[in-house]
């Protein structure tokens, strides 16, 4: 049963993530109204206590606080544009994956108190200690609704710029996909030799977890723009060894395309006279954009 002393919340979007958010709100007792393009997805949530709005307008007018969790930026704009007037004066918390530019565009598009969010969890992690969510934009919207937002997981406010939550989100996703790319390549190598990837997986996790600690040193070097601090694995050595990643893939007849882009960047740093420094200096090449 909803706790009517708690503020009403509306959730737009009942995909895997939107449904998990609704379940967290219901478990915490928030009166929750839901809308989804495909109405059938509301049925199990209504059985668990949610109220189903069949139109976006009804969903928006049911609550001052609107949580939006749709596929992408264009979907959010298309859905919210249909209720532009009804949105006026409400709080919109957009948890849809977006870029920083898209988030800033939405923040200025409607007459709302706008908070953007980046969910750092998969649906089964929502409302567990493993989940955290970045927020940025309206500080008052964040402060006023913090208790509601913390039903999803730890909330981390990263600034008044509505684009900063998306920037943090995409940065962490970049780290994750880089790890997935390397992990997939590693598993492909092992699999190509007929070795059990299941038996290999714990070794991969162990090594990647211990090497994750390396980012603290890289971050210090980047902030100080000094890539010669505490170097234990110079980039000339790393660049020479990296060539073997491609050669090893060729020997196993697998594609090295997931890992190949880093090799030329390391080689350029070495050629530019930075061989004694750490790999963090590669960021100086990234900062040039696509200019050589
Ligand atoms: N799942 C995750 O692991 C995860 C993790 C972090 C962040 N996120 C983010 O959360 C957001 C939602 O993800 P999800 O996992 O819930 O995705 P999903 O299961 O694919 O659900 C997509 C949602 O968007 C709606 N939608 C798609 N196109 C639409 C359109 N043209 N008009 C109206 N509604 C439309 C879908 O409605 P229908 O049901 O009618 O198709 C559904 O509600 C995404 O931005 C995603 O990046 C997801």
UniProtKB/TrEMBL annotation:
Domain 6-phosphogluconate dehydrogenase NADP-binding per the UniProt entry, residue ranges: 9-158
Domain NADPH-dependent reductive aminase-like C-terminal, residue spans: 161-288
Key word Oxidoreductase present: yes
UniProt keyword Oxidoreductase present: yes
Coiled coil feature spans: none
Superkingdom of source: Bacteria
InterPro entries linked: 6PGD_dom2, 6PGDH_NADP-bd, HIBADH-related, HIBADH-related_NP60_sf, NAD(P)-bd_dom_sf, RedAm-like_C
Record's keyword terms, sorted: Oxidoreductase
SUPFAM superfamilies reported in the protein's UniProt record: NAD(P)-binding Rossmann-fold domains
Family: Belongs to the HIBADH-related family.
Protein name (Swiss-Prot/TrEMBL): NAD(P)-binding domain-containing protein
